[in-house]
Amino acid sequence: MGGTNRRGFLKTAAVGTAVGTAALSAASYARAGGANERMVVGVIGPGGMGTSHVRTLASQNDVRISHVCDVDRNRLAAAVKNAAVNGRAEPAAVGDLRRVLDQREVTAVFIATPDHWHAPATILALEAGKHVYVEKPCSHNIREGRLMVEAARRHRKVCQVGTQSRSTEMNKTAIQMIHEGIIGEVLSVRVWNSQRRGNIGKQKPSEPPAHLDYDTWLGPAPFVPYQANRAHGVWRWWYAFGAGDMGNDGVHDIDVALWGLQIETHPSTITALGGKYYFDDDQQWPDTQTCVFEWPSVGKNGRKKQMIFEQRIWTPYKMEGYENGCTFYGDRGMFVVGHSEGWRLYGPRNKEMKTMSGGVDLPAHHRNFFQCIRSGNRPAADIEIGHLGASLCHLGNIATRVRRVLNFDPKSEQIHNDKEAGPMVRRQYREHWGTPRGV
């Protein structure tokens, strides 16, 4: 991963509350003030998941939302109302994220834009001296993710990715037990995303609605005409703007799988099959896919490790009792972790030994972010952890598109000897103020 020494800060603490203990410089978080002072934040992209962030932040006494930013005036107005609750003042409403980053009082920003804006907005925010909480997947492509890691380290800022399982007690308990050897040595994990998505239909280009600043919505992505089924909520099904459901929902369980396996680097071999088996609509990413990732040497024993990812987003049926989840296979048992539902531990002869239920804890992930801004510690879902999880989504999607085995160099982050797949670790950008340097 860019030749960086990851071992010190990617190893998860026993309870998974933070990764590494390397502190950022005092100057990087001095503006946050004391522990009892309100953190001033801006929310960029307060629709969809961004609405959950606004409502959660508005319920926290030590946080003040000073700005909300969206390219859709209707969503912007709704965000102001969601933030101005319980006697709180209305935040400033802006349509250009640079107006948020210009504010010296803003200590941190929450970025919940479409995927193609995640990296550009994060890098701009870090360069402006802000701490960043960015939604998953943190990047649109592998190269962007590396630039995000470099920017966070260069500017000495906290950068938390929105994979909330890392701050959820249910998941932390499961991972601690796995790391302590409850099911013996784990060599393989199976991840699945099984749920019923909707058909996005077939549309033709049209004029964007008056309340949407479509050019800014596109940002540095290449220009394509507005189309009703590639904007709000459905952008993730298009190559130019999202990473499919593997990057949307699958990344949560891929992250948990990496955490449990104690993986510290990219896989070296990836292969996949899949495509659109069910939906007859405009979406481009697969509705069905199976990806296999292999690491040639992991941990002190240097054993091979494998991850299998399965996706069927047209079926409402659960697997092993959970809609989304992952199963760790050890030589003395099996641990099934269901995303946002709970987990079950099985011992020899498939005997169920222990269970736990619970949901994902978004407020805890926020608290971890703010605590790390004040302390200078690395957050539970640090940007390099997020980059690793997102990269698996990108590699799985690339392998699915080209339908063959990929040989990936974890250090250079390049696909070797494949003229078609190799360039897909990056993307094309148009000339735009948001285009990151070095892409």
Topology:
Blueprint: H1 7-10, E1 39-44, H2 49-58, E2 63-69, H3 73-83, E3 92-94, H4 97-101, E4 108-111, H5 115-127, E5 131-134, H6 142-155, E6 159-161, H7 169-179, E7 186-194, H8 214-218, H9 244-261, E8 269-275, E9 288-298, E10 303-312, E11 324-330, E12 333-338, E13 342-346, E14 352-357, H10 362-375, H11 383-402, E15 406-409, E16 414-415
Parallel strand pairs: 1-2, 1-4, 2-3, 4-5, 5-6, 7-10
Antiparallel strand pairs: 7-11, 8-9, 8-15, 9-10, 11-12, 12-13, 13-14, 15-16
Helix pairs in contact: 5-6, 6-11, 7-9, 9-11
Would you give an account of this structure?
By secondary structure, this protein is an alpha/beta fold. The chain is 28% helix and 21% strand. The strands form 2 sheets. It has a 10-stranded mixed sheet, with helices on one face. A 6-stranded parallel sheet has the order 3-2-1-4-5-6, with helices on both faces. Helix 9 (244-261) packs across helix 11. The longest helix is centred in the last third of the chain and has 20 residues, at 383-402. Residues 1-33 have low confidence and may be disordered.
